[in-house]
Amino acid sequence: MVELDSNTMRKLHKLLPLLASGHAGEVAATAAAIVRTLHSAGACLHDLAAIIEKPPRVVEKVVYRDRVVVEEKIVYRDRPAHPAERSHGDHSSPSAARVIELGRGLLAAGSLTDKQRSFVENIMACAENDGERFAMTPRQCVWLDGLAAQHLGSAAHA
Predict the structure, then answer these.
(1) Residue 51 in contact with residue 12, Cβ under 8 Å?
(2) Separation CA 80–CA 129 (nearest Å)
(3) Rounded distance, CA 108 to CA 111, Å?
(4) CB 21 within 8 A of CB 28
(5) What is the sign, positive or negative, of the torsion defined by CA atoms of 108, 113, 118, 120?
(6) Residue 84 has pLDDT above 70, yes or no
(7) pLDDT for res 34
(8) What SS3 string covers the chain?
(9) Is 88:38 a contact under the CB 8 Å cutoff?
(10) pTM of the entire structure?
(11) From CA 55, how far away is CA 29, in angstroms rounded?
């Protein structure tokens, strides 16, 4: 009897259920594929029958180390209490009211892409929820200014 490697056994595991097909052509093709798979491993159908007949070997694993559990904790930094406490360099974040006003104008323009509309809706929701504590990152400021310039004209983002 020939021992079949794990790769061959994996292939046979996928092929054997296909023998239950209701189409004679599929059954014949599956049987031929099984014979080819066995032949490539140096075995035949008699070897497969012997493998099926003998009970499987039980392999016990011995683990000599303890299981390590990693627990991650995500901590979010609080936004500054007042816009003056931010340190964004030259980029000044507009007030929450200004962001909401710009956002309404941009959404009313109707010419935003899905990504742009999603950004505007999200930044408006943050402005409405945070009120005075609302602050934008420099990249968000640049993007919002660009959208306002593109869709509302240069006077809208001043």
Answers:
(1) no
(2) 14
(3) 8
(4) no
(5) negative
(6) no
(7) 93
(8) CCCCCHHHHHHHHHHHHHHHCCCHHHHHHHHHHHHHHHHHCCCCHHHHHHHHHCCCCCCCCCCCCCCCCCCCCCCCCCCCCCHHHCCCCCCCCCCHHHHHHHHHHHHHHCCCCHHHHHHHHHHHHHHHHHHHHCCCCHHHHHHHHHHHHHHHCCCCCC
(9) no
(10) 0.41
(11) 29
Distance separating the N- and C-terminal Cα atoms of the chain: 84
User: What mean pLDDT do residues 51-67 have?
Assistant: 69
Q: Each residue of 82-109: b (16+ CB within 10 Å) or e?
A: ebeebebeeeebbebeebbebbebbeee
Question: Residues of 33-52 as b/e, b for ≥16 C-beta within 10 angstroms?
Answer: ebeebbeebebeeebbeebe
Tell me the per-residue pLDDT of 105-133, one tens digit each, with 9 for 90 and over. Answer: 899 888 888 999 999 999 999 999 888 88
Percent of the chain scoring above 70 in pLDDT: 73
Query: With b meaning 16 or more CB within 10 Å and e meaning fewer, what string describes 62-73?
Result: eeeeeeeeeeee
**Confidence bin at 157 (pLDDT 50/70/90):** very low
